[in-house]
Amino acid sequence: MNFLQKFTPKITRLIKFQYVNPFSSGSLYEPDYLEGMKSKVPLYDTLNIELRGYDYPILESYQKYLNKLITNMDITVEDAWATPAQDLQLTTYKPNSELVNTQYKLRKYHRTLQITDISSLQLPMLLRVLESSTPPGVTIKVLPHEDDHEEVRYVPDSELLQLKHELDELGGPSKKK
């Protein structure tokens, strides 16, 4: 007997076999078929695909194409909306001066597709398709959905906001007793 064998404790392994019914969910209060309906692949929560571009017809047709593509991939398109256009004015100046060379008026359009229950296997394929099929001048962002994203789509009523401001200047709403 060598030195290591003398001082090494003997390790015994206990192997326990237990029968598990593959059709049982293991829950006393839940039916067994609910466990079978759950996805074996992890699912993402709600995602927003934001499309931005300066050319309205191209952006609209690309949104329509993506909507059909995503639906054909068996991904749920929960909602789609347009955000009001953003007006931009660009000015270029003559070299080494403050004289205006040209002025451009641009409109930036914004569309959003909201998708739900996309599996972790489908998302990389969708991202590759988005990357390869994006037309020139269109930018895409894929973001997790937040409540702020939905608030942007509504146009504020300027008259209502002005009336509320005037009411606050007069002391706020009157309280009836």
From TrEMBL:
SMART domains: Ribosomal_S10 (SM01403). This is Small ribosomal subunit protein uS10 domain-containing protein. GO terms for cellular component: mitochondrial ribosome; ribonucleoprotein complex. Residues 48-143 form the Small ribosomal subunit protein uS10 domain. The keyword Ribonucleoprotein applies. Keywords: Ribonucleoprotein, Ribosomal protein. It comes from the Eukaryota.
